[in-house]
Design goal:
mainly alpha, about 0% strand, 4 helices
Length: about 70
């Protein structure tokens, strides 16, 4: 994992769906878990959602929330 992936989680918006426009790090955990169970999209968004799933699963959101302030 590279720092720029964490920065993307703190700054990139969800491009579609119910949470369109929300920062990835701000997506609710149940939504991230649902995406993970249904299959992640291909490409960068899928990779970021997979990383976000692991971060939320392990309670590490605070690491990314710090980056939102930069």
């Amino acid at each position: 994992m590279q720092n720029n992936e964490l920065i993307k989680l703190a700054t990139k918006e969800m491009p579609y769906g119910k949470y369109k426009g929300s920062l990835l790090i701000d997506l609710p955990e149940p939504y991230v878990v649902w995406h993970h169970s249904k299959g992640l999209p291909k490409g960068e968004l899928g990779e970021l959602l997979g990383l976000l799933y692991e971060i939320k699963l392990n309670g590490l959101e605070y690491l990314v929330h710090k980056l939102k302030k930069i």
